[in-house]
Design brief:
With 470 residues, this protein is mainly beta. It is built from five helices and 32 strands. Helices cover 9% and strands 42% of the residues. The strands form seven sheets. Strands 7, 8, 11, 13, 15 and 16 form a six-stranded mixed β-sheet that branches.
Length: 470
């Protein structure tokens, strides 16, 4: 599963390189947008406007911004009908929104005082795609003034990777304080599903925070509340906002990582993994920490449970962390690792995690060829460990004019090298891979033929593949 996701990412990279994504995404409203009520509620300006000018603003070393000037046809929030409004578009292109001079659009813009921008995740779209939005917005005139704030509060009860690791927090107190009037505040409770709502609040900005009621106040020393987003919420009249919260335990694990010579190891990830998580390739949990310049690490908000502590269990050794998989206190397998029990507000401190000697770096050289035997120049090459389904070891490289590449890995590790390029005749992706090999100081050059299809790549199970498919 993760292998397929990885290849998808690399395919997307190549599509971007050849300009294909723009064609795929052009003029398609993004599906990753908030509901209309939320979009309306957080926008500083909402209007129908005709584009009268598009101006590119070039920037050094970064992608361009664009000034889009609209003639307002119909105003809903923040601007005046028949006025000219200029918004800044950054992080995207006019083509993504199908922006063309002379055509009308429903625009949701952030900002105020005539300084507006169109942000990622907006519902801005061509007027022909805005029917649902306009039906909702035009009905607002029939509603009474006020705004709605709602959301859910969850209590973390287990490691972030365990099934059902949170549960609804019933009876939590939610406090909404008006930002410009600290004396004006409102209070409500979550229901049995952890859901809360504030209705008919005066329009404006609010700071929302969770608290504990009398029945759960004993949690206060063991849990802390955090918002899944900004705690300050500004809402346009008749709009709404959704704000979720997570109540986190105050468990903490800290220590220091040193190498075989006793020197601090900086900037590596220390993995704190529940013993019930058995697949290292799928460790993306929040219970981890990076060491600082002194080799010290602290992981906060660790839920109750049983954990092992490791380096490079979930990821292959790389330049930044050139050590074999190691488990605390300094053992090679997870079965040998010390198991730590974290209580609700426990503290495990002053650990000294000693790693073995660094792995020896070894060069990997090779060449990539098209099916007709000609060198494949300018194609992407990347290396994966056979032990891991994740990608990739160190950096990807591009073949030179002769189809040659050079990368590196670590002695004693088992690798497979992959290549993907766009066939200059068919304009489709061709794939190839080396046979698996254990890297040593006498490694021979690798030869890869781009003779596989994307379906072969996606259907292949590396753990059970037949060597005849290489």
């Amino acid at each position: 599963m993760k292998n397929k996701l990885t290849i998808l990412i690399f395919t997307l990279f190549l599509m971007l390189s050849f300009g294909s994504v723009k064609q795929v995404l052009a003029c398609s409203p993004s599906p990753y947008t908030p509901p209309i009520c939320e979009m309306y509620g957080k926008s500083g300006a909402v209007f129908i406007g005709k584009i009268i000018n598009i101006k590119e603003i070039k920037q050094e070393n970064v992608s361009s911004n664009y000034e889009i000037t609209f003639q307002v046809q119909e105003n809903f929030v923040g601007v005046e009908t028949n006025s000219k409004v200029t918004v800044i578009l950054s992080g995207s292109t006019p083509e993504f929104y199908c922006f063309r001079k002379g055509e009308n659009y429903l625009v949701y813009a952030s900002g105020k005082d005539k300084k507006f921008s169109i942000d990622a995740g907006t519902r801005t779209r061509h007027i022909k795609d805005a029917g649902e939005d306009l039906e909702f917005i035009r009905q607002l005139s029939k509603q009474k003034d006020g705004v709605k704030i709602s959301g859910n509060v969850n209590l973390i009860v287990k490691s972030s990777l365990e099934k059902d690791n949170t549960q609804p927090f019933s009876g939590a107190i939610l406090i909404a304080k008006k930002s410009d009037d600290k004396n004006l505040s409102f209070q409500t409770l979550t229901d049995i599903n952890g859901h809360y709502e504030f209705n008919d609040l005066p329009a404006g900005s609010y700071d929302i925070s969770p608290d504990f009621n009398e029945e759960s106040k004993h949690f206060k020393d063991k849990y802390s509340g955090s918002t899944n987003g900004s705690s300050a919420t500004k809402i346009t009249n008749k709009g709404c906002s959704k704000q979720d919260f997570t109540i986190e335990p105050k468990g903490k694990i800290s220590g220091k990582v040193i190498d075989a010579d006793g020197n601090p190891v900086k900037n590596i990830k220390v993995e704190i993994i529940s013993i019930f998580v058995t697949d290292p390739d799928y460790f993306e949990g929040s219970e981890s920490a990076d060491t600082d310049s002194n080799g010290e690490f602290i992981s906060y908000n660790v839920p109750p449970g049983l954990y092992t502590i490791s380096v490079n269990y979930s990821n292959p050794p790389e330049d930044i962390s050139p050590f074999p998989p190691t488990f605390y206190p300094n053992v090679k397998t997870r079965q040998q690792a010390q198991v730590f029990e974290m209580t609700l507000d426990g503290k495990i401190e002053n650990l000294e995690f000693r790693l073995p000697a660094k792995l020896n770096k070894r060069i990997i050289k090779g060449s990539v060829f098209w099916k007709d035997g000609t060198p494949a120049s300018g194609v992407l090459v990347y290396t994966k460990e056979r032990l891991h389904d994740v990608c990739c070891v160190n950096n990807e490289v591009i073949t030179n004019a002769k189809g040659e590449f050079e990368t590196h890995g670590f002695e004693g590790r088992e690798y497979r090298v992959w290549a993907v390029g766009e066939n200059r005749y068919s304009n489709i992706k061709d794939y190839g891979a080396s046979t698996p090999f254990i890297l040593d100081k006498n490694a021979l050059p690798i030869r890869i033929i781009l003779d596989k299809t994307e379906s072969w790549l996606n259907d292949m199970d590396e753990d059970n593949e037949d060597s005849s498919r290489n």
